[in-house]
Structure formats: C-alpha cells, structure tokens
C-alpha cells in the first residue's frame, strides 16, 4: 500500500469516527420534539450527550485538517464547489453548540423552547446536508479541466443526493434515539426504544435503496461487501432494539453508520472527486495529493497521535458510562448548567 492509498483510508477512518460519534449527537438533538414531553425529560435527553458532544464534533476538524494536508486539491475543489452547503453545516453546528450552553441561562420556558428548537435545527441540517454532500462526491460532479466545480447548489440537489441526505438523516436519528434509550431510564427509555423501532423500520427501506443505487452506479467488490455488512448491522440493530437490548442495538447502529461510510469511500476509490463533465478531469488519490515527503511526515504524526486520541475518547465514555436518570435531573439545581458536574456523574 502506497502513502496515497494509506492517507485516503486514514481520511475515511476519520470521517467514519465523526459520523458514528457526532451522528448520534445529531439524532439525540432531533429526538427532542418526539421524546421531550417536559423540561425534565428534555434536560435528561440533552444530558446524555452533555459531556461528549463537543469532543465528538472535533473529529470533523481533524478530518478536515488531514484532508487539507494530504489531498490539498481535493480540499480546494470540495470546499469551493460545496461552499454553500458546508457553510450551512458550519452555521448549524454553531447554532447547536450555542444552544447547549445558553438554554439553561434563564428559567423561563419560552427561552428554553427557543434554544431547544435551535438544537433540533442545528442537528437536522448537518445530518441531511452531510449525506447530500457525500452522495454527490461519490456520484460525481461537473468539474472543468482545472478541477473547478462548474455547477450550482441545485446541481447537488439531485435525486441521488437527496436520497443520500434522507438516508443519513434517518440513520443518525435512529442512532441517536437508540442512544437515548441506552442512557436513560423509566418512561423516557421505553418511549425512545419504541420510537427507535418504528423509525428503524423506515430507515431499513430508505438505506437499502440508497446503498443498492450506490453499488449499481459505482460498483466495486469492497463497496458491495461493506454495503451488505451495513444492511445486516442495521437489521440486527432493529431486532436488538425490539428485544430491549439497547447496548447491542446501539452497537449495531454504530456499525451500520461505519460500514455505510466505508462502502461510500470504497465505491469512490481511487477517485476522490469524479468529474461528470469528462472522466479525464477527475481528481484521484494521486493528482490531488501532497508530496510523498509530506505524506511520510504526516504518517509518523498519525502513528503517534491517533492511538492517544482513541484512548482519551474511550476513557471519556468510560467515565460517563452510567445512565442519566430522571431523579438526578430533578435533584439538580434548576438554574444550573444542563451539564453540571453533579449531573455528569450520572451520564
């Protein structure tokens, strides 16, 4: 395996980590109007991700930085051509982060309701647009001989791209609702389990359609294998949730997202940005990459940094592994932050 191929899969790994981790964050945020029956239950839902949401979000920063350093031509074409949808994603992430920090600053319900809707919108918009963006990357976009994107926002809003967005929206929603069931108790836990089951059945149909379309349009043996694994994992997650095994259901959801993203990258390889104008204008892992010297230095840095990041992430989830109970929320000071140290102990 040469360095170009290695870094293609390192970038893929970072996006897998981002979509698995921030994916259930998005799902938790989108679940508020369905599961948040009162302020206590909404605080309980938000506290499930309170200690980890910002750490999960940093994966996209690392992925973007590595993309810029390893494949600068890919980065330039992607961020210039997809400027508007990526800007909307960024604004939505800022909106969501601000809402987590400010919703507890006033006790009145109107204040909190406004920030709750900001959390919902700030979760749903990235969940949809990330799918639209990656579906278009795999399908290909119009590029000229200088690798400049020649389309518009409406070029990206094609049937395949929109189906990709709907797929990620539903996958993240089910993934997040399953996480709520795993991390809460009582009525909220039961309602989350029932909602995950209903939404999971719809997601199976939509995700299967998208993965089949992907394989037919961009066939690769590796893509087919990982698409099949994603389908099996999703069905297993739904069955586990039906049987009340939230831990296995969440694991199946995480594997579904991971296998689906790997299937997309496998279908894309060795291209990184196919051109629908002329295949000769496409970007691949060689004409879009940095020098071998740069990739070599980065490989040593990744060898040192990635294990440390994974260890720290694992330790964080171990510390906050317990359920967020309704009693702990009711006992916490009402004016305190939604992620106070006392509440985090029970998260």
TrEMBL record:
<dbReference type="InterPro" id="IPR003317">
    <property type="entry name" value="Cyt-d_oxidase_su2"/>
</dbReference>
<dbReference type="GO" id="GO:0046872">
    <property type="term" value="F:metal ion binding"/>
</dbReference>
<dbReference type="GO" id="GO:0005886">
    <property type="term" value="C:plasma membrane"/>
</dbReference>
<keyword id="KW-0349">Heme</keyword>
<feature type="transmembrane region" description="Helical">
    <location>
        <begin position="247"/>
        <end position="269"/>
    </location>
</feature>
<feature type="transmembrane region" description="Helical">
    <location>
        <begin position="77"/>
        <end position="95"/>
    </location>
</feature>
<feature type="transmembrane region" description="Helical">
    <location>
        <begin position="297"/>
        <end position="320"/>
    </location>
</feature>
<feature type="transmembrane region" description="Helical">
    <location>
        <begin position="159"/>
        <end position="183"/>
    </location>
</feature>
<keyword id="KW-0472">Membrane</keyword>
<comment type="similarity">
    <text>Belongs to the cytochrome ubiquinol oxidase subunit 2 family.</text>
</comment>
<feature type="transmembrane region" description="Helical">
    <location>
        <begin position="6"/>
        <end position="32"/>
    </location>
</feature>
<dbReference type="GO" id="GO:0019646">
    <property type="term" value="P:aerobic electron transport chain"/>
</dbReference>
<keyword id="KW-0812">Transmembrane</keyword>
<feature type="transmembrane region" description="Helical">
    <location>
        <begin position="195"/>
        <end position="215"/>
    </location>
</feature>
<dbReference type="GO" id="GO:0009055">
    <property type="term" value="F:electron transfer activity"/>
</dbReference>
<dbReference type="Pfam" id="PF02322">
    <property type="entry name" value="Cyt_bd_oxida_II"/>
</dbReference>
<keyword id="KW-0813">Transport</keyword>
<protein>
    <submittedName>
        <fullName>Cytochrome d ubiquinol oxidase subunit II</fullName>
    </submittedName>
</protein>
<feature type="transmembrane region" description="Helical">
    <location>
        <begin position="115"/>
        <end position="139"/>
    </location>
</feature>
<keyword id="KW-1003">Cell membrane</keyword>
<keyword id="KW-1133">Transmembrane helix</keyword>
<keyword id="KW-0249">Electron transport</keyword>
<feature type="transmembrane region" description="Helical">
    <location>
        <begin position="221"/>
        <end position="240"/>
    </location>
</feature>
<dbReference type="GO" id="GO:0070069">
    <property type="term" value="C:cytochrome complex"/>
</dbReference>
<dbReference type="GO" id="GO:0016682">
    <property type="term" value="F:oxidoreductase activity, acting on diphenols and related substances as donors, oxygen as acceptor"/>
</dbReference>
<keyword id="KW-0408">Iron</keyword>
<keyword id="KW-0479">Metal-binding</keyword>
